[in-house]
Amino acid sequence: MGTIKTVVNDASVIDFINAVQDETKRNDSLTLLALFEKVTGEKPKMWGSSIIGFGQYHYKSERSKQEGDWLLTGFSPRKQNLTLYIISGFDEQADLLKDLGKHKISVGCLYVNKLADVDIAVLEKLIKKSYADMKKLHNV
Questions:
Q1: d(CA 90, CA 68)
Q2: At CA 36, angle to CA 79 and CA 124, rounded to 5?
Q3: What is the CATH number for 74?
């Protein structure tokens, strides 16, 4: 079994964001940083080299012997889009998603090209619900 590469570390979140080449993505990342801090009350931490996480929990996989720590919520300014980690999923979020604006989703990720494409108030509600659900689920 391989070593988990995406782990929390002491790299500077601000230095990481300031190094984002695309100006819109860099500015959006600063906005997201403030939004996630406000919603979670957590200080941001780098996870691996490209994910900004807020809070953490310990997991043990039921399918394998792997266990480790993971962020409760967070985001990453990827080359193609902004990836937001809405880890609790979207099963109960249909009403919010329809009001969010232009986006794509996968199991626990929300993808937006730029924050101008979405309603920030709706985005805040999505983050808040996911964060609360994850804290409750993992007793943290």
A1: 24
A2: 95
A3: 3.90.1150.200
Domain span holding position 103: 8-138
pLDDT at 65 over 80: no
| Residues contacting residue 123 through CB under 8 Å, at least 6 positions apart | 35, 84, 100, 115
Asked if 111 contacts 79 with a C-beta cutoff of 8 angstroms, the reply is no
Count of residues for the chain? 140
* Total domain count, the chain: 1
Q: Please tell me what DSSP assigns to residue 58.
A: E
Q: Tell me the mean pLDDT in the region 101-127.
A: 97
More confident call, 62 vs 107: 107
* Cα distances (angstroms) measured from residue 67 to each of 45, 61, 74: 20, 6, 20
